[in-house]
From TrEMBL:
Record InterPro entries: Bact_solute-bd_prot1, SBP
Keywords: Signal, Transport
KW RNA-binding (keyword) present: no
Protein name from the UniProt record: Extracellular solute-binding protein
Length: 452
């Protein structure tokens, strides 16, 4: 063989080895938070995630961040349903019962998740300890069933009382109230004072009602539960026997009935849900009422509220039992068991509940459930205006001392669906508290026995 051909063969062998060698090199992997990308393809490119989410009010702002998730991961997110919590729960319950689930991620709530946990994916294999370390343990537990996480929290909820400072500080109002009730007009410290104040302002006329409550669906049931507890009662005893028709419940029902009969609440109160009660206060029609923290920014915005800058908040007034009303709950996200893209669905939830997005929601009044974010919110409040400082301090006290969730039973919503129509009849005077609660207790007991 000539030297020329030998050199040619060696050259071809070298080229072949180089091609084989370079062909085996994989594209570099880049870690980016919860998202992993290659130089050629994003991690969830080609995946379409469908979601059913809570909507309305300040819930909407979070979803404006979804395009960032899509850009980072390559996934596409379609919101196929969005409505208030009650309509969302009805859809989820209907779909899960009929096994017609065409979505991957849902909004859910600690009060409701037990009702359809069988249709949800346990998240312990999709979220590591590090993923969950920053969440408040007690809040995280609200989304657990049999010690496994089924819901990742978005925000915590407990109400404080919003009151009109322009009305409470008005000298004429203060003088009239002192003359009639023989004590000073200040934010109420007890439920009895709340009743006095509500009746007083309603008597002033000018289209003003003293107070209001959401008057239907689980909204009514939850408000009644916290009042029942403040009057020394509860819905169920330790053995899960129904006791809401005993002394505490009877006093709470009579309390609501008395407010309505005195004209202290609007005539249409039994038709109100969250949007209606917020709108009434925003339009200057209510003197004081119980409201969730997430509405604070909307109510303090002159573009959406006539009472912006004219209200403050106070801890829920104490009941005769020494308990402050404290119906608490946790909003969050879950992955459906039917999802074909569980890892991508979990990535979306990690994104929606990350520190950045939670911080942004907290600026609108949402109560953050990451420890780091909540600590920063409280720190920032120290240098803010006095009203904002009071808002967060009051909220912090309520979370620490008053937070109580409904009984952890799968039948919570069915229980509510039985109870609230009787409460409506009691409030408007169609049934006595004893008659209405006895009937409700009897039906609830039968339902619990049939579904245990």
């Amino acid at each position: 063989m000539s030297k020329k051909w030998a050199r040619h063969i060696i050259f071809l062998i070298v080229i072949g080895l180089l091609v084989i060698g370079f062909g085996s090199v994989q594209p570099a992997t880049v870690s980016k938070g919860t998202v992993t990308e290659t130089s050629n393809k994003k991690m969830y490119e080609g995946i379409k995630l469908k979601s059913a989410l809570i909507g309305g009010g300040t819930y909407e702002s979070l979803y404006e961040a979804i395009p960032k998730f899509e850009q980072e991961t390559g996934a596409k997110v379609e919101i196929i349903f969005k409505d208030n919590n009650y309509n969302l729960d009805k859809k989820l319950t209907t779909d899960f019962t009929a096994n017609k689930i065409d979505y991957d991620v849902i909004s859910t709530h600690s009060n409701q998740i037990s009702g359809y946990s069988d249709a949800l994916e346990p998240l312990d294999h999709l979220f590591t300890e590090d993923d969950l370390r920053d969440f408040s343990p007690s809040i995280l537990n609200a989304g657990k069933i049999d010690a496994k996480p089924y819901m990742i929290p978005r925000l915590a909820d407990i109400s404080v009382y919003y009151y009109r400072t322009d009305l409470f500080h008005d000298e004429a109002n203060k003088s009239k109230f002192k003359t009639e009730y023989n004590y000073d007009l200040t934010p109420p410290q007890t439920l009895e004072q709340l009743k006095d104040i509500s009746i007083f302002f309603a008597k002033q006329g000018k289209g003003l009602s003293g107070t209001q409550f959401a008057g239907k669906e689980e909204a009514m049931t939850g408000r009644f539960m916290e009042l029942t507890q403040a009057f020394g009662g509860d819905f169920l005893d330790e053995k899960k026997n129904v006791i809401l028709n005993q002394t505490g419940g009877l006093k709470a029902a009579q309390y609501l009935r008395d407010l309505y009969a005195a004209g202290a609440m609007p005539k249409g109160v039994v038709n109100f849900l969250w949007d209606e009660v917020e709108n009434n206060f925003a339009n200057g029609k209510i003197a004081i009422y119980s409201e969730w923290p997430g509405w604070y920014s909307t109510l303090d915005d002159p573009k959406s509220s006539k009472v912006a800058g004219k209200f403050d908040v106070v801890r829920a007034p104490e009941g005769p039992s020494g308990i402050h009303p404290g119906w608490g709950g946790v909003h969050g996200f879950a992955v459906t068991k039917a999802s074909k893209h569980k890892e991508a669905a979990a990535a979306l939830i990690k994104f929606l509940t990350n520190a950045e997005n939670m911080t942004n929601e907290s600026k609108l009044g949402a109560t953050p459930v990451r420890i780091s974010v909540w600590e920063q919110v409280l720190s920032d409040a120290k240098t803010g205006d006095e009203r904002k400082q009071n808002f967060y301090n009051t909220l912090n006290t309520a979370l620490k001392e008053d937070f109580r969730t409904p009984p952890p039973i799968k039948q919570w919503i069915p229980l509510s669906n039985i109870l609230y129509p009787y409460l409506q009849k009691i409030i408007v005077g169609d049934m006595s508290p004893q008659e209405g609660l006895n009937a409700a207790a009897s039906e609830i007991t039968k339902m619990l026995e049939l579904t245990r």
